[in-house]
Amino acid sequence: MKKTIIIAEAGVNHNGDVSLARELIAIAADAGVDYVKFQTWITEDTIAFDAPKVEYQIDNDGTSTQYEMAKRLELSFGDFEKLKNYCDQKKIGFLSSAEEIKSLDFLVDKLNMPLIKIGSGELTNTLFLRKVAAKNRPVILSSGMATMDEIKAAFQTLKEYGARTVHILHCTTSYPAAFEAVNLKAMLAIKNEIRVPIGFSDHTLGTEASIAAVALGAEIIEKHFTVDKNLPGPDHKASLSPEELKQLVTQIRNVEKSLSGSGQKIPTPDELTIRQNIRKGIYLAQDVKQGTIMTEEFIHFKKPIKGFDALEIDLVIGKKTKKKLKAGSPLKKNDI
Questions:
Q1: Mind listing the pLDDT tens digit for each residue in 104-154?
Q2: Which of 14, 12, 20 is nearest to 47 (CA)?
Q3: What's the CA angle centered on 54, arms 49 and 60, to 5 degrees?
Q4: How do 5-11 and 35-40 pair as beta strands?
Q5: Model pLDDT for residues 171-193, shown as the tens digit of each residue
Q6: Contact 108, 133 (CB under 8 A)
Q7: What is the pLDDT of residue 64?
Q8: Under 8 Å CB-to-CB from 32, ≥6 apart: which residues?
Q9: 175 closest CA partner among 58, 324, 334, 14
Q10: Which of 87, 150, 216, 330 satisfies CB 3.0 to 4.6 Å to 94 for a cystine?
């Protein structure tokens, strides 16, 4: 099985603090993920001053406007340059999803980001998608809040304007997303209808949905994580702890191993050794004389197999014994 790409979504869980962002990078590197991802934007260019928060933002981050929240969480281009260098130092891939064109140009042209992640909020931003595609990089597109027709239109725009490859992540934009709302089968519908590699951006609590997505064929898993779930901010409560992030990586790698076989139902080498002692052979239930015709009353089935396998019962019934045999002994090929 192809290795699943695991993206640890730091997002805005740095709370606008570069030192906390560095700590998140170190946690992601220690967990063994492939990429750590942030979000890059210029608040004035992407959010109206009076834009209200959505419900989960109000619940987790108070009642200020969306603009005020974003301004508090915004990091500068200089900050991201330092974070990219720190990722290089920690030998972990750096990603950040841009929300407007200046940030996109900075991330790709200045930081040479190897692939471009597009957040769900930009899926219908056609001009932005064209600019992304023109960078001629691999693209990962999240599909939260979208209809299938909207996803198809975004995919067609990206391919038409030059995106090298496009992976689409199924996503439910809710923090946290209820398991009943995840609808993982929609990920397979995206794959089948658009003929595109798929993945899952997981906003549920815990790791179960991500594991199920890998088993269903997700090639990319994206999952929020944090230093501390109790920190103030919009996304901490729906994020994994450092230990949970490590567990997710281990679980995904174990699922990959479980799916990596030939697909043919054949015993493993270990099973071939074990089954001799686990399966039952044919033993004698009582003493028998030479010339006895074997019937069921003379037979017991016991472990291990030392002569006839229980599977070979039809080779035994009706046959005549060559010699006197004792109760409890295994019936062997040269006994009949």
A1: 999 999 999 999 999 999 999 999 999 999 999 999 999 999 999 999 999
A2: 12
A3: 105
A4: parallel
A5: 999 889 999 999 999 999 999 99
A6: no
A7: 80
A8: 246, 249
A9: 58
A10: 87
AA letter at 268: T
Tokens of 96: 């950040």
**Closest by CA position to 135, among listed 167, 162, 99:** 162
- Structure token digits, residue 153: 């239109």
The whole-angstrom separation of Cα 72 and Cα 74 is 6
d(CA 123, CA 120): 5
How many of the other CB atoms lie within 10 Å of CB of 196?
A: 17
Tokens standing for residue 243: 């230990």
Three-state DSSP string of 136-156:
CCCEEEECCCCCHHHHHHHHH
pLDDT at 53 over 90: no
Question: Mapped to the 3 state alphabet, what secondary structure does the chain carry?
Answer: CCCCEEEEEEECCCCCCHHHHHHHHHHHHHHCCCEEEEEECCHHHHCCCCCCCCHHHHHHHCCCCHHHHHHHHCCCHHHHHHHHHHHHHHCCEEEEEECCHHHHHHHHHHCCCCCEEECHHHCCCHHHHHHHHHCCCCEEEECCCCCHHHHHHHHHHHHHCCCCCEEEEEECCCCCCCHHHHCCHHHHHHHHHHCCCEEEEECCCCCHHHHHHHHHCCCEEEEEECCCCCCCCCCHHHCECHHHHHHHHHHHHHHHHHCCCCCCCCCCHHHHHHHHHHCCEEEECCCECCCCECCHHHEEEECCCCCCEHHHHHHCCCCECCCCECCCCECCHHHC
Contact 128, 122 (CB under 8 A): yes
State phi, psi for 76 to the nearest 5 degrees.
Answer: -80, 165
Q: What is the identity of the amino acid at 183?
A: N
CA dihedral (320, 323, 324, 328) positive or negative:
negative
Which is it for strands 93-98 and 35-40: parallel, antiparallel or unpaired? parallel
- Taking the C-alpha atoms of residue 311 and residue 301, their distance in angstroms, rounded to an integer, is 10
Q: Give the up-direction half-sphere exposure of residue 307: CA atoms within 13 A in the CB hemisphere.
A: 19
Q: Give the per-residue pLDDT at 1.
A: 61
